Amino acid sequence: MMSKTTKETSKNVPAVKAIQVHKAFGDLHVLKGVDMTVEPGSVTVILGPSGSGKSTLLRLINQLETLTGGEIDVDGEMIGYKYVEKKGQRVLQTLNDKEVAAQRAKLGMVFQRFNLFPHMTALENVMEAPVHVQHMGKAEARELAVRELQRVGLGERLDYYPSQLSGGQQQRVAIARALAMKPEIMLFDEPTSALDPELVGEVLNVMLDLAREGMTMIVVTHEIGFAREVADQIVFMDGGVVVEQGGPEIIDNPTEPRFKDFLQHVL
Ligand code: ADP
Ligand code: MG
């Protein structure tokens, strides 16, 4: 497969594989059999109208929600469940908290709203999880946080509080915070949707750099320019199903009427 960013990996398994994924909230059937494969080191952009289930899919991958049907594998491993032998039968068992935490540690997530701790500086925000989740020493966590903040262009803003930073800068702190946990895969859920237009570019540039470094990324966005330039794969969702998917060229040559219609509204 041709890819702009795919890097060599030892394991020959997809980074993420969704197989006939279903999700219902009570009577509301939100995902109705979603299939998606994300190769290691590639960038997948998920497009689709509001309410089509994009956030739900990301939240399922990150185990913030539980499936009601189908399967998701991350790094070749089924998430949330494992097979065990019981009375000579192979049965599915839910993973315990520790096992779930180990799977979730492979993923970093960035949301539309930055969710930074307002009473902590940029540096402290990025140090928080390495210190309190990974039990890293403070000195080491500080070094790591400085590096990650430099990586997103905020080496000069280490001691600023969120209220002293622009929305774009806050979102870059949120990206640095996710990267500090050394994820294999980054999930972005409309990371620029809450930003003033003049601040969108600085966040997309950080994401572009990450993609060039070979990070596996799944990005929900309405930034078609970013999708065209950076994506290896486009997945268009509508009504809880994947309506069309392919390389970035499908943006300029959509097949499905619903995708055509969507593009006319966002372009
Ligand atoms: P998108 O991100 O594409 O806009 P979402 O995945 O956020 O779509 O939502 C898809 C549908 O699922 C919407 O109708 C939304 O209201 C519904 N939904 C999402 N999360 C929940 C929830 N926790 N409880 C009930 N309904 C939900
Ligand atoms: Mg959403």
Automatic annotation (TrEMBL):
Listed GO CC annotations: plasma membrane
Localization: Cell membrane
Catalysis: reaction(s): a polar amino acid(out) + ATP + H2O = a polar amino acid(in) + ADP + phosphate + H(+)
Main location: membrane
Domain ABC transporter: 16-264
CDD domains: ABC_HisP_GlnQ
Keyword annotations: ATP-binding, Cell membrane, Membrane, Nucleotide-binding, Transport
Top-level enzyme category: translocase
GO MF term (any one): ATP hydrolysis activity
EC number: 7.4.2.1
Topology relative to the membrane: Peripheral membrane protein
Keyword Flavoprotein attributed: no
Domain of life, per lineage: Bacteria
Protein name: ABC-type polar-amino-acid transporter
Species lineage: Bacteria, Bacillati, Actinomycetota, Actinomycetes, Bifidobacteriales
